[in-house]
Design brief:
The complex is a heterodimer of chains A (about 170) and B (about 375). Chain A has 2 domains: about 5-75, Rna Polymerase Sigma Factor, Chain: A; about 90-160, Orthogonal Bundle (Arc Repressor Mutant, subunit A). Chain A has 8 helices and no strands. Chain A has helices at about 5-30, 30-45, 50, 55-70, 95-110, 115-125, 130-135, 140-160. Chain A is elongated, with a radius of gyration of 18 Å. Chain B has a domain at about 140-320: Methylamine Dehydrogenase, Chain H. In chain B, the strands form 6 sheets. A 5-stranded mixed beta sheet of chain B has the order 1-24-23-22-21, with no helix packed on it. In chain B, strand 21 and strand 22 (about 335) form a beta hairpin. Chain B is about 15% helix and about 35% strand. Classes of the chains: A mainly alpha (about 170), B mainly beta (about 375). The interface between A and B is large, with 65 and 47 residues. Chain B: Keywords: Membrane, Transmembrane, Transmembrane helix. Chain B: InterPro entries: 6-blade_b-propeller_TolB-like, WD40. Chain B: This is WD40 repeat protein.
Chain lengths: ~170, ~375
């Protein structure tokens, strides 16, 4: 690859690497898995860099989401976090109600199927529209809407009645 | 008490904030990326070896087509023609399928673990009378009727027109509709390139190097999930399927198609509608007399090709097998995939059946044009 493209790749990773890791960590909840996910996506981007460099971030983000969202198809579901029950709130060290709520929702979020979690991260971390989310995940807007709806319903079921209000996604 | 969505937003932010710090991501990605490249090149090289290994097989012309008219079997008798094997494929000479249809390109998928489509292409060089491996791997790739020009979306919203040696002949910036599978399509005479766009379609003229946009939001929003565009034989009209909007869309079932809409490639205006439940199989879908069309019918219960009336859309045949089909110059139909080729009479009756050469292995796509 030409040196100018190599430099461009290095600059891209330096500039956007941390933001990509934030997305990956929100998707996985696991530092090592997040790093693997981003590194894998960047490797794929590097392999096709001359072709995709003009739109690199969209390409890498798409790979991160799709790799994660399709992880359930693979036989080994490593790094998936399953939470059979909501953690005992009494065990939480922090007593601030909001923090407890956030931890509860966070654990519930990490127990969702990867695709539903990807939809929620796109919608609530990245503030993407339904259409943009659909494009990133390679599905229809209707699928995004139904996945988001199911995910929120599951969260509501998991966190119980204490956090009740459930406005529609923006 | 806080709203669940508000809490969710905070929880997702918390998770993102706990991300590890990036450390030499670029270096590690480079090492892994180079490995991916090596695997990709190895896959392409393996295919080249396969081709080289078969060039020693003498080229055998196909048996001549039967001179006598095809006799349709009596309704009460089912006569299935015997299956014959076609000769081996060789890159040394044009490969002709029954009906004198030429294989213009062989597409071998190159497995890349980023899920991207990437292919190795072997295309017919008509002047040299043999096949050549193309030096690019864009997918999907549209090959012009004369086999000299290729078109592909090489980057987001960028279509390159390429020569067989990889030279970029022209670059077009268009708001492509590729997310729905709308690949560029060459007109039957190769003078125009149809590009499905987010807002309708665009037509590129090879003569002037200019392209015109024809905005029409209905095309995008009403197209079926199998949204393939094609040209009519006149090279001045295009066909686009339209789904039945009264049927609720769901990922669980393919869209129900209610019509094929024909638009003018000169004005972008809607010309007519053909009420039918399938998508034209491509530029070769229209019979030489213009009276019938081959449509791909994909429903929950059927997946095949059917002959329909070009005006009324009324089905005129049973479902034909084969992922692809074209009308031959004499009005018969060649249905084909990478394993079998079948000749059908104009009414869809199976006449001859052949086994494709072993070189067209699983995953290979064969592009065919009538001579």
């Amino acid at each position: 690859m030409r040196q100018s493209l190599e430099d461009e790749f290095t600059a891209f990773v330096a500039e956007r690497g941390q933001a990509l890791l934030r997305i990956a960590h929100a998707l996985t909840g696991d530092r090592e898995t997040a790093q693997d996910l981003v590194q894998g996506a960047l490797a794929k981007a590097y392999a096709r860099w001359p072709r995709i460099h003009s739109d690199a971030e969209a390409y890498v983000r798409k790979i991160i989401y799709n790799d994660r969202a399709s992880a359930w198809r693979r036989p080994a579901r490593r790094n998936e976090v399953f939470v059979a029950e909501v953690p005992d709130r009494a065990a939480e060290r922090r007593h601030d109600q909001d923090v407890t709520d956030r931890l509860t929702v966070r654990n519930a979020l990490l127990s969702l199927p990867a695709r539903q979690r990807a939809v929620l991260v796109l919608r609530y971390l990245e503030d993407r529209s339904v259409e943009e989310t659909a494009e990133a995940l390679g599905c229809r807007p209707g699928t995004v809407a139904s996945q988001a709806s199911r995910a929120l319903a599951k969260l509501r079921g998991m966190v119980g009645d204490r956090i009740t209000s459930m406005g529609g996604a923006r | 008490m806080r709203d669940l969505e508000e809490t969710l937003r905070d929880a997702v932010q918390d998770l993102a904030d706990e991300a590890p710090h990036a450390f030499d991501l670029a270096g590690a990605a480079r090492i892994q990326g180079r490995r991916i490249r090596r695997r990709r090149h190895a896959a392409a090289g393996a295919f080249a070896l396969i081709l080289l290994s078969i060039v020693t097989v003498p080229y055998v012309w196909l048996r001549p087509e039967p001179r006598t008219p095809v006799v349709q079997p009596a309704p009460s008798v089912t006569v299935r023609p015997s299956l014959r094997s076609l000769p081996d494929f060789t890159i040394k000479a044009p490969y002709l399928l029954p009906g004198n249809a030429a294989v213009t390109m062989v597409t071998i998928p190159t497995r890349v673990d980023d899920g991207a489509d990437e292919n190795t292409y072997v295309a017919l060089d008509r002047d040299a009378g043999r096949y050549r491996q193309l030096p690019f791997d864009h997918a999907p790739l549209a090959v012009s009727p004369d086999g000299e020009r290729f078109a592909a979306e090489v980057a987001r919203n960028r279509i390159d027109v390429l020569a067989a040696d990889g030279d970029v002949v022209d670059t077009l910036q268009v708001d492509t509709f590729s997310s729905a599978g709308g690949a560029p399509v060459w007109s039957p005479d190769g003078s125009r390139l149809l590009i499905p766009t987010d807002g309708g379609f665009a037509v590129y003229e090879t003569g002037t190097g200019e392209h015109r946009d024809f905005p029409n939001p209905d095309i995008h929003s009403l197209c079926s999930d199998f949204c393939s565009f094609s040209w009519l034989p006149n090279g001045r009209e295009i066909a686009v399927p339209r789904r039945d909007v009264s049927v609720r869309r769901t990922e669980a079932h393919p869209d129900k198609i209610e019509a094929v809409i024909v638009y003018s490639a000169d004005t972008g205006k809607r010309v007519r509608s053909i009420p039918t439940i399938g998508v034209p199989v491509g530029n070769g879908a229209w019979s030489p007399d213009g009276g019938t069309v081959l449509i791909r019918e994909v429903t929950d219960t059927s997946d095949g090709i059917r002959v329909v009336d070009a005006v009324s859309g009324v089905p005129l045949s049973e479902l034909l097998a084969g992922p692809d089909a074209i009308y031959l110059a004499d009005g018969r139909i060649l249905a084909f995939g990478n394993r079998y080729a079948q000749i059908h009479a104009a009414d869809g009756t199976l006449v001859e059946e052949y086994r494709m050469p072993r070189q067209f292995a699983d995953g290979t796509t064969v592009t065919v044009a009538r001579s």
